[in-house]
């Protein structure tokens, strides 16, 4: 009986430790989500034609968007810039589609969007809800494309770095995916469960 109590105590201590570790990681992940603004483009369909159009729209929006966001100093300012330029993004995307013989509708809006764990080059972002400039082309039923507009990780030439926006601990998580892969998965499960209740 005494051994069972010890085993139960060790098991409870282990569960408590894992829970605290996950909560700490979730808190840090939440800080990352509150510091990053994403670009999210949804293609009309998965056809090769629509996917190619999505890439052309992406290239145009990155060019136009980079100019708008290059002096942004924080997430709030970035969201404000995006909201103030939604018509410009729609016009750029529609213009690019028309140049390529396509007349599909385009909508642009800023919203909180659910993302799974995503990797961009050496950078991985935990799952969860991020503010994003969401561009929907046509029916928006095709595979999407995303990147980070703030800090600007979409363009390699950007002078802005993730270290400029995140503190040292947050930047460590974003830059060292392999070290945190299990926690990323747990965080993703946690976000899935959270979204069921929201």
Features:
198 residues; alpha+beta; four-stranded mixed beta sheet; two-stranded antiparallel ribbon; elongated
Q: Could you outline the blueprint of secondary structure elements for this entry?
A:
Blueprint: H1 2-33, E1 37-42, H2 48-69, H3 75-84, H4 86-99, E2 106-115, E3 118-120, E4 123-125, E5 128-137, E6 144-150, H5 168-175, H6 177-196
Parallel strand pairs: 1-5
Antiparallel strand pairs: 1-6, 2-5, 3-4
Helix pairs in contact: 1-5, 1-6, 2-4
Radius of gyration: 20 Å
- Which structural class do you get from the secondary structure elements? alpha+beta
- What shape does the CA trace take? elongated
Mean pLDDT: 76
Poorly predicted tracts of residues: 156-160, 179-183
Proportion in β-strands: 15-25%
**What portion of residues is helical?**
40-55%
In order across it, which strands form the biggest sheet?
2-5-1-6
Structurally, the number of domains stands at 1
- What is the H-and-E element order? HEHHHEEEEEHH
Number of helical segments with 4 or more residues: 6
Distance between the termini: 43 Å
Largest sheet: 4 strands, mixed
The protein's oligomeric status is: single chain
Number of DSSP-assigned strands: 6
Describe what you observe in this structure.
54% of the residues lie in helices and 20% in strands. Helix 1 packs across helix 5. Residues 156-160 and 179-183 have low confidence and may be disordered. Strand 3 (118-120) and strand 4 (123-125) form a beta hairpin. With 198 residues, the protein is of the alpha+beta class. Strands 2-5-1-6 form a four-stranded mixed sheet, sandwiched between helices. The termini are far apart. The chain has one domain (29-196). The protein has six helices and six strands; from the N terminus they run H-E-H-H-H-E-E-E-E-E-H-H.
């Amino acid at each position: 009986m005494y051994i069972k109590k010890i085993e139960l105590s060790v098991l409870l201590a282990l569960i408590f430790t894992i829970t605290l570790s996950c909560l700490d990681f979730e808190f840090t992940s939440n800080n990352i989500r509150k510091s990053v603004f994403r670009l999210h483009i949804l293609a009309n369909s998965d056809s090769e034609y629509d996917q190619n159009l999505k890439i052309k729209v992406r290239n145009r929006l990155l060019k136009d968007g980079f100019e708008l966001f290059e002096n942004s100093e924080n997430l709030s300012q970035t969201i404000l810039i995006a909201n103030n330029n939604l018509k410009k993004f729609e016009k750029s995307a529609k213009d690019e589609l028309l140049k390529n013989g396509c007349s599909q509708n385009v909508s642009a809006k800023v919203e909180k969007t659910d993302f799974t764990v995503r990797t961009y080059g050496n950078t991985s972002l935990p799952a969860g809800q991020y503010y994003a400039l969401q561009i929907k082309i046509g029916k928006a039923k095709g595979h999407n494309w995303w990147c980070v507009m703030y800090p600007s990780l979409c363009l390699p030439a950007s002078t802005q770095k993730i270290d400029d926006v995140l503190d040292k601990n947050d930047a460590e998580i974003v830059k060292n995916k392999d070290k945190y892969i299990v926690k990323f998965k747990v965080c993703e499960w946690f976000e899935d469960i959270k979204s069921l209740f929201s």
